[in-house]
Amino acid sequence: MKKAVLSFIGQIGRCGDREVFLGFANASELSQISFPDILDEVTGKGYQRRFHREHSLEFKRYIQKPGATTIPLTFNLRPDRKGWKLKRGSNGTTLIVDITAEPVMAQVDCQHRLGYLRESPIPFAFMAYIGLGIEEEIEIFRVINGKAKGLSGSLLDFTEARLIEDDLKAA
Length: 171
What we know:
Blueprint: E1 5-15, E2 18-26, H1 27-32, E3 34-35, H2 53-63, E4 73-77, E5 84-89, E6 92-98, E7 105-109, H3 111-114, E8 123-130, H4 134-145, H5 153-170
Parallel strand pairs: 3-7, 4-8
Antiparallel strand pairs: 1-2, 1-6, 2-8, 4-7, 5-6
């Protein structure tokens, strides 16, 4: 039996010192294969703020207007998630995702932009880090969102403490 897959043609390159896949897809496809890593304060798992309805609706209203655009959505192809592979070729690279598996891309910076666009055909540019560990992903999230309007300082403090704790354990 053949797997149900989505394929995205793009390019492999570098963003700073990290390897990334750059591609294009519509919001519904990106929503289908990605997930936000919401902080559960009881278990300590996750690192992102809870979904903010109005923030997401505001973006949806904006992006549906003529002439609207946005920066590329940022993801991470988690190494512990099965169901994705990169097929490198001489004319580019194809990201192949098994849509019957669990979502494979963590939403590093796009949770609120995708929130109310789950069934939308609106196309987006996207960048996916390739195989960052969770600590590396959290660090990038902190850098991107450290000065973001509305992002709780306590959430950033929590993720920083978690990174420091992980560094101490590794030492």
